[in-house]
Write a structure and sequence with these properties.
Strand order of the largest sheet: 1-2-4-3-5-6-7-8
Strand content: 15-25%
Radius of gyration: 17 Å
Order of helices and strands: EEEHEHEHHHEHEHEH
Helix content: 25-40%
Shape: globular
Largest sheet: 8 strands, mixed
Number of strands: 8
Number of helices: 8
Amino acid sequence: MLHETIELPVNYRGKLENNNFVPYIKTYILDNFEEFSEGRKRPLVLICPGGAYEMLSTREGEAVALKMNSLGFHAVTLWYSLKPMEFPASLLDLCEAMNCVRSHAEEWNVDPDRIIVAGFSAGGHLAASLGVYWNRELLKEYIPYSKEVLKPNALLLSYPVITAGEFAHKGSIENVLGCTKKYSVKDVQLEELVTENVPPVFMWHTYEDGCVPLENSMLFAQACRKNNVPVEYHVFRRGGHGLSLATKETTWNNGTNSAGIQKECQIWPELFAAWMESL
């Protein structure tokens, strides 16, 4: 496995505030072997952990990457800008990560037509933001990459923050906008920005989520349906917010209790892998 940390450029330095943070990725790139996988090109999942754009949840980083590895995916985790910052700093960090992955696709044996951007909670907002913005003029102002470089081939959204309206997770929306004077709530209310150009979406949420209400993912699913964007959407009846893999590996308090274990939700990675096979 190629496991390394790569710092990303900050082409917007001097144009946007991001607390002088240098974003970076960590790679979990599987090796090929002459015995059984020589020349194999694998899909890659680019993972955006959550944390309300205020912190980044390590529970939604490496453990998820290793689970993706076990299902035959390369994985990369992104550590992006947080408050205090200005929109769209975090989104531009994700764009840099996409450019890095695509520029290493041949070296890392990545299938360039199967690069999936995944996000959890506020990281889901970030992933979905790239899904709606990859071909829009907003990004051109700050970065030099083509639409083809920035376009995700699919989105994996886990209990995502989506709306800035009635069911908003207000902390995430306030933090992602930051002190910007140029952009407003309408620029981060993602269900209103969906077009037919959004890539296929796999999404899951829990009915009992008391932090980021289920309506967030429902609104995104409805907007995708209206615009003929393919969606597979799973709603699990039980489970709170921030489950990650919903296993002992990603429990709170270092796994010393059952907080965050939800057996019925543990199947979501396999459902996602099966969905990817169908694309």
